[in-house]
Amino acid sequence: MHTDNGQTRSVWMTTADTAPAPALTMDTTADVCVVGAGIAGLTTAYLLARAGHRVVVLDDGPVAGGETCRTTAHISNALDDRYVELEKLFGEDGARLAAASHTAAIDTIEDIARAERIDCDFERVDGYLYAPPGEDRDLLARELAAGRRAGLDLTMVERAPVDGFDTGACIRFPNQGQFHPVRYMRGLADAFERAGGRLFGHTHAHRIEGGAAARVEASSGHAVSASRAVVVATNSPVNDLVAIHTKQAGYRTYVIGARVPQGRIPHVLLWDTLDPYHYVRLQPLDDSYDVLIVGGEDHKTGQADDMDARYARLETWTRERFPATERVEYRWSGQVMEPVDGLAFIGRNPLDADNVFVATGDSGNGITHGTIAGLLLTDLISGRENPWAGIYDPSRKSLRSIKRFAAENLNVAAQYADYLTAGDVSSLDRIAPGTGAVLRRGLSKLAVYRDESGALHERSAICPHLGCVVAWNSGERTWDCPCHASRFATDGHVVNGPAITGLGAAGDDDADANG
Ligand code: FES
Fold it and tell me: Which atom of ligand 1 sits closest to the CA of residue 467?
């Protein structure tokens, strides 16, 4: 499976393929047009189609070709922003709704996999949250109490059931899930089409309009007119300039996958309480081996470029705790959209027509949040009440999250200083084949990539979203924006929103702006 979101390949991309979806080659109509064939978009599309709506899905790549093929697919109601925090932000009732919605998402995935006979290695597993030495162990007791108040059946156990790795006391989250996300998405795409849905890949949506004449226009010029609603499920919404993007921040997270003999490490989900935290699970590989998948080492998108050091630290961490680790065969990175208050944004797009919906802010729980989006948006679009609508409302503001809001936006403001700096290199000769760098030429900042044959590819380094200077990501060979995490391929085309268009021509610093 090939995507242009980066050059690394996850274990999922190497062990499954998605069915190719044809491009949109004519104008068409639907009740609902969904932009994005990742977990949120396709689950929404499938459930809407099952409910009798005529649904068209557009994606600029293959099914699951964005961040869904880069997840580690922990399917969990152990939320990484912690129930202790959610209680403060949303109250006890809100925390209960959050827990119930994530539990429902796990059940929904299991139900869909079973009903549609999707062979995706879905497995119920227990999850364990532990506090490493030096961390606040009281946090576990507080989280246990808050999680129980939220309605979860949690217990404190002496250690996780992993031979040779003494985690110390930890909270057991029973009945979590895991699966192979690309196989699940392939089965879901087939099920969507069996339910009458139409799916178009390699179709970039470049104009999205709500209201009475709601429509999505592709860059090819063909359009889908939607009589009922448009859903934008593009990881980071490409139809919103500011409202949501000041309330969430993009992070890169890193993952390694190593062979371990089957049976040496039980299938569990494991998380520590560090910040950034480590997350661990296993995936069956063949008759003799599992892949031990370990992630962590997050940083804000576009604000570090030291991937090798991060993979090395993950490997050291893994070998120290899991002596059965053999060869590391997979290394990849993915993007996490971190909302200021820990819950996704799912519902009506703020400041937009009533029939435009978004799903974003995975918060490290992308598979459950994406599935919740499917359940919640299907209700909203069908005119049904849903008890979760309030906690996921994209328009919500919480005074209690104001500190994190302010910190994230100060960090964004600081990125604009890059306009004034010299650039990464002073001349083109300093850019080695296969690498990129930002260069100042007169008043312009250029994003220059030199391909393996030595040819130079120059684009404007100014992000078309809100004008920050992009940074080179040597691990994925992309240009990443440090402000709101848009990402661009080496030829400048956009691979991740909020930008909806690519980097402008070199020297054309104002070209292509979204607004
Ligand atoms: Fe907002 Fe680049 S993503 S300025």
Answer: 4
